[in-house]
Design a protein that fits this description.
With about 180 residues, the chain is α/β, with parallel strands linked by helices. About 40% of the residues lie in helices and about 30% in strands. It has one domain (about 35-175): Rossmann fold (3-Layer(aba) Sandwich), CATH 3.40.50. It has seven helices and eight strands; from the N terminus they run αββααβαβββαβαβα. Strands 5-4-3-6-7-8 form a six-stranded mixed sheet, sandwiched between helices. α1 crosses α3 and α3 crosses α4. It is globular and about 45 Å long. The two termini are about 25 Å apart.
């Protein structure tokens, strides 16, 4: 797993991490921006994240039926893990949480094959404050799902992990901002 993890960190450093002046989705100002989607939506990133995400879930004993999170950042991560799990004895279904419930059709906030009673892993591409993950957790709990924890591609190391843990959630991060910064050109 370490060479794959090294490959993921390098992809994130090369494609997703930028220095400058940025306003993050949390409203915070930062001199580092990690647009993980530039990695998570690439063919190489999808393969690595699917493999590493599934391995991490298994290593931590997270026996889940479904995986997903707040659209758009969580979507490729959840889909990659679900796809990778397809040929295992325990395939994991992917879902997405809308930012707002639909105003037409069934009016769902949570879309996809997830149901009441499912054990679920919430996904984040990048954790900063943990607010997006907490919104997804709330939506899944509202439909009767049991949230096992949060799987993140990157922990920015700015208090989000701690906020999620304070809310009683386990957190797995495939990598951290400091591990990516060390690889930036």
């Amino acid at each position: 797993m370490s060479s794959s993890l090294d490959d993921l960190r390098q992809l994130l450093a090369d494609r997703s991490a930028r220095r400058g002046k940025f306003t993050l989705s949390s409203g915070r100002e930062s001199t580092l921006y990690i647009d993980a989607r530039l990695t998570t939506m690439s063919p190489e990133g999808l393969v690595l994240i699917g493999q590493l995400g599934l391995e991490s879930l298994e290593q931590h004993g997270w026996d889940v039926e479904a995986i997903g999170g707040l659209t758009l950042g969580a979507d490729p991560v959840a889909f990659a893990v679900a796809y990778t799990s397809a040929k295992t004895p325990h395939p994991i279904r992917a879902f997405t949480v809308r930012k707002e419930a639909k105003t037409y059709g069934a009016g769902r906030l949570v879309e996809g094959p997830v149901a009441s009673g499912d054990r679920v892993a919430i996904v984040e591409d990048v954790i900063t404050t943990g607010a997006s993950a907490l919104r997804a957790v709330s939506a899944v709990k509202d439909i009767g799902g049991t949230v096992v924890g949060v799987l993140a591609v990157v922990d920015r190391e700015e208090g989000g992990r701690e906020a999620l843990e304070k809310a009683g959630l386990q957190v797995i991060a495939l990598t951290t901002a400091s591990q990516i910064i060390g690889r930036m050109a």
